[in-house]
Every structure is written in C-alpha cells, then in structure tokens.
Amino acid sequence: MRCFNKVILVGNLTRDPELRYTSGGIAVTNFSIAVNRAYTTKSGEKKEEVSFFDVAVWRKLAENCGEFLKKGSAVLVEGRLKEDRWEGEDGNRHSKVKVEAYDVVFLSSKESRTAAIKEEEAFPPPAAAEEEETPF
C-alpha cells in the first residue's frame, strides 16, 4: 500500500516568525498562518471560517522566512503533516499536528521582491563565457 502526505496552504502569518538554531547549528523557523474559507449556507447567508496552522521550516529557507516575513505576510506553504507527541509534566500524553514545510512562496509583493534579490545575491548567474573566434 502506498502512502501520501502532502499539504498546500495559502494564508497570512498570524504573528512574526520565530527563527532559532538547533544545538547543531541548523536554522528552524516557526510561524502560524490563518487560512480563510468563504462559503454560502443553504439559506443564502454568506459565512467565513478561519483555520490556523503551525508551520516549521528548516535550514536556508528558515533563515529567509525569519528575515523577510512578518505578521500579516501572505504565503503559500507546501509541505507535509507531522504529528509531534510528548508526555506532559502531569503524566498525560499530548500530540499536535503541524506542517513541516519544504517550500514557502512569499506572496506579499515587498517580501517577494526582497527575497528574489537576496536569492540572486546568494546564487549569482554564471558569468558569460567569452566566445572564441572560430577560424573558418
């Protein structure tokens, strides 16, 4: 049997992202996004519901999210669902499902532009090779 775990969400950050580093020096950024759903009831009444999702991002993408995103930023998050389990001080078992993102697209125009510039600085295009004259 095959398994599949993929989620794509578009929403806005509910708070500023929190960038930290593990003891091994790996960057991790956590943030929460709100995803709105508008619908009309059978009686014709327009309603809106909001769902909140916690997101974790790792490595270079985590550093970019920590630097360029802020509360209210619009993002597209692509990743997988991950369940964290732990035992509390009271001895009870707890669990929480979050999104572990492997791609975050900055949709707010200012963040997109700034991140694109930063990406070009990190990975400059290769220098054009000088064309040699072919003698024929």
TrEMBL record:
Molecular function via GO: single-stranded DNA binding
The UniProt record lists the keyword Transmembrane helix: no
A GO CC annotation given for this chain: nucleoid
Gene3D superfamilies: Nucleic acid-binding proteins (2.40.50.140)
Record keywords: DNA-binding
GO BP of this protein: DNA replication
The organism's place on the tree of life at top rank: Bacteria
Pfam families membership: SSB
Subunit text: Homotetramer.
Name listed for the protein in its UniProt record: Single-stranded DNA-binding protein
Organism of this sequence: Candidatus Schekmanbacteria bacterium GWA2_38_11
